[in-house]
Structures are given as C-alpha cells and as structure tokens.
Specification:
The chain has nine helices and 19 strands. It is an alpha+beta fold. It has a seven-stranded antiparallel sheet with strand order 9-10-19-12-15-16-17, with no helix packed on it. A hairpin with a 4-residue loop joins β16 and β17. 17% of the residues are buried.
Length: 467
C-alpha cells in the first residue's frame, strides 16, 4: 500500500505517468515540464493550475530536482521489479506464476491450472501482460483525448467570456456616447429655450412697464387739475374766483388716452405653442442613429392583385386582378410589393403597422431576386423575411410571433448593411423577435406581403408608419 501511495505521489496529474523533468508551480503542485507547457500553450493571457485551478498572471515554473531524484530511484526500482517478475510464486503450491487465468483475472501456476482452473481459458503470463498493457495504453489514450477535449472546452469558455466582456464594454461605450449626444443636445436646447423665454419676457415686461408709466402720468395730470378745481371752488370772493377762469376751464378739457391694449397672458411666440417640444424632438433626430425611416411603396413592383393607397403607404389584397404592364420589376404570382427606397450601406430602421391581421410577411430582399412565378422566400434566394402564417407550415418563413400570447400590432425592422444583420422587433414594446445574419453584396429593398383576405378575417392593410 505504501508503495502504491508513493507511486501516486510521484505521478504527473496530466499524463498519469511518473514525473519526467518535474517542475513546481507557485501553488506547490508538480507536473512534467512538457505536460504543463502543452497545457498552457493555447491559453491566452492568464493561466491556471490544472489541479487546484489557482490563476497565475506569470507562467513561472521551478525545477523540482529533489522530486526528480526520487522519481528516478522509483523508476529504477520498477525496472528491477520487472526484471524479477518471473520470481513471483504461487502461495498455495510454491510454483512460479507462469499462467494467467482470464476468467479469474489472476496469475496462476501450473498446479493451479491443472486443478481448479483446468476448464478456464489460460494464457502465458507474459502474453497476458502485453495484452492488458495494450488495453491500458488504449484506455490512457482515450482518457487523454477526453482530457484534451475538456481542456479545449475550457479554452473556448474562457475565450467566450473575453468576447462577451469585450462586447459589453463596446455596448457600454456606445450607450454612453449616444446618450451623451442626446443629453448635450437637450441641454443646449433647454438653455436656448430658456434664454429666448427670458428675452421675449423682458421685452413684454418693458412694454407693460411703459404702459403703467404712461397711465400714472395721465393720472397725475388729472389729479393736479382736480386739486386746482377744488381749491378754486373754495374761494368766496367773486373777483378772485373769476381770475384766469377761462384758462382753468381749458385745463378741464383734458382727454385721457389709453397707452395701448395688453394681455395678462403670455403671447404664443413666448409660450411656443402646443408643438414646441415636437419641434425639439424632430431636431433631436439629427443626433440619433438610425433615424426611423419614412418609406413609400413602389407601384411598379406591386403584384396586380395588390391595392396601394393614394399616398403609397398602405397595401391590401383583393381577388380581382388589375390589368397592369408585366414589366421585369413586377411580382406576377407572389403578392409582394417593394419599397421605393433601397439601401446599399448604413443602418436603417422602419416600422410597419400590422393591426389585427392574421397573415402577413415582412422583411427585405435583394434587388436581383426572381419576381416571376412561384417563389421560395428564403435567404438562399435573397429573401430575409418573417411572417404570421399559421396555415402555411411548408414555407421557409420563420413565424417569429407564434410563441407570443399577444401578437404585435406594429413591427419594427432594423437593417445593419455592413454588419450583415436584419433584426425584427415588436415595435409596441421593442422586444426582439428574430435575427437574420448574412452578407449583403447588392442593393437591399424592404418588402411587404399583406397575404390573402382569408374570408374577410385578414382584410386590414399593411401600413408603412411615418415617424
């Protein structure tokens, strides 16, 4: 038992063999120099002890010379023991253990074989050693492969963590930048509106002050004439009473003039009207990216069963076909229509009103897609669309709203051309519905399909919402 324990202590935890050129880590665990080097070879950045998982910022190892000497002594003992292998004897018969019983899984002598093991399959002990050594080596190789696989998973997990942290840092920086722009814009507009309010208010108050001053001047003049009249009426002697009487009467003919009308309420140009903040909101769109895009439909691409509104912002399907030119741009079988605006770069966002529709398809497509005959709207064919299509399970269109208890009434579509992504949102609460990831190499157009009326249950149009 002591020998087994000693062998265990002198075994590398990685290769499970006696140490070869052993080294010690800072945590005092030991490994073969080549084993720990291979273990750390593909690990970026900090490394860890394979045994206790302690993390090291430096890849420091120290030669374990004393341990190496002990290992060499044990290895010599093993060699000598192997040389004396044939000297093992049967405890019962005193004969050499030359055979191996595969049924009993034990080394036996000739007497054992001729008695209790005579019906068992028996092979020479050296042959058995070679067979089981091969099996152990195979098991060791398998376990080493499993170890390598787990190590690979560990590396992948560590790299994944680093990638997530980098992504989060980038998003945090983006959030700070975008909200910084909006905060700066709103702060500047707030100060401008306050300054304009103060300027206009000062002007109004100055005019009202002038009004009061003029009124007080008029009142002072009237009060002076009234005092003189009262004083004259108190004179009893006629000659004195009549002195300059006409001049006094002329002063009594004063006609007062109102300085001008004014209102106790602030004028509209100061208050700003009910839409003053809408104006600020529209101006703020200049610092937001992407700005919600206002789209219109392209009648030249519309299937002849589709009916477009006069302002080209809504579309619905009717049974009767219209007589329209069968041009290359027009969808002749599928009920699709494109936006009049396409994109070759940048980030864009638009919203589509779904109302209570039970069937619809919305997304984007490449400019060169086939528009004639039956269409399979898949990314392989240049279509990146989702839909609400409970009756059409065979189509390659993700039903991204099937899991929702409440179906969205507005759909948001976000295109990042260079980033190769199309994201769909429930625009009512901006919850994410679905994402396509691909590479765009040509012009991309928003595409819409209001789908069949379904016996009157899907008669509402698809509507392009304006910001």
């Amino acid at each position: 038992m002591a020998s087994a324990d000693l062998t265990h202590e002198l075994t590398c935890p990685i290769c499970l063999e006696l140490f070869t050129d052993p080294v010690s880590l800072e945590c005092e665990h030991h490994f073969c120099r080549s084993c720990i080097s291979r273990s750390w070879e593909e690990v970026p950045g900090d490394v860890s002890c394979p045994q206790c998982r302690r993390v090291f910022t430096q890849r420091n190892t120290s030669p374990a010379r004393t341990l190496g000497n002990v290992v060499e002594q044990v290895r010599l003992l093993k060699v000598k023991a192997a040389e004396r292998e044939e000297e093992f004897y049967c405890e019962e018969h005193g004969e050499k253990l030359k055979m191996f019983c595969e049924e009993g899984q034990e080394a036996i002598c000739v007497d054992c074989w001729s008695s209790e093991h005579r019906t068992h399959r028996v092979i020479p002990v050296k042959e058995a050693a070679q067979i089981y050594k091969a099996k152990l080596e195979k098991s060791l190789g398998f376990l080493q492969q499993q170890t390598d696989l787990i190590f690979q998973w560990k590396v992948e997990g560590e790299i994944g963590i680093l990638q997530i942290k980098a992504h989060v840092d980038a998003l945090r920086t983006e959030i700070n930048t975008e909200f910084g722009k909006m905060h700066k814009f709103l702060s500047e507009r707030e100060e401008l509106m306050k300054a304009e309010l103060e300027r206009k208010t000062d002007k109004i108050l100055e005019e009202m002050g002038n009004y009061l001053t003029s009124t007080l001047d008029e009142m002072s003049s009237l009060e002076g004439v009234i005092r003189d009249l009262k004083a004259r009426l108190e004179i009893q002697k006629a000659p004195e009473f009549l002195k300059d009487i006409q001049a006094l009467l002329n002063r009594c003919e004063i006609e007062v003039h109102k300085p001008g009308a004014f209102s106790a309420e602030l004028p509209v140009d100061i208050v700003g009207g009910p839409l003053k903040y809408v104006k600020v909101w529209k101006e703020m769109r200049a610092v937001i990216s992407p700005v919600p895009t206002s789209l219109t439909l392209d009648p030249e691409t519309a299937n002849n069963q589709l009916v477009l509104s006069q302002d080209l912002t809504s579309v619905y399907l009717r049974k009767k076909k219209r007589e329209l030119p069968d041009q290359l741009e027009r969808f002749d079988s599928a009920w699709y229509v494109l936006s009049s605006m396409g994109f070759t770069s940048g980030r864009h966002y638009w919203e589509v009103g779904l109302g209570n529709k039970t069937h619809w398809v919305v997304g984007i497509c490449s400019e060169s897609v086939n528009r004639k005959g039956d269409i399979i709207p898949s990314p392989e064919n240049g279509y990146w669309v989702i839909g609400l299509l409970p009756d059409y399970k065979s189509l390659k269109i993700p039903n991204a709203t099937s899991h929702l208890e409440v179906k969205p009434r507005k759909l948001g579509v976000y295109l990042d051309y260079e980033g190769g992504q199309v994201l769909f949102y429930n625009a009512d609460d901006m919850s994410h519905l679905y994402t396509f990831t691909d590479t765009f190499t040509e012009k991309i157009y928003p595409i819409f399909n209001p789908c069949t009326n379904k016996a009157g249950n899907n008669s509402e149009p698809l509507t392009l919402l304006t910001s």
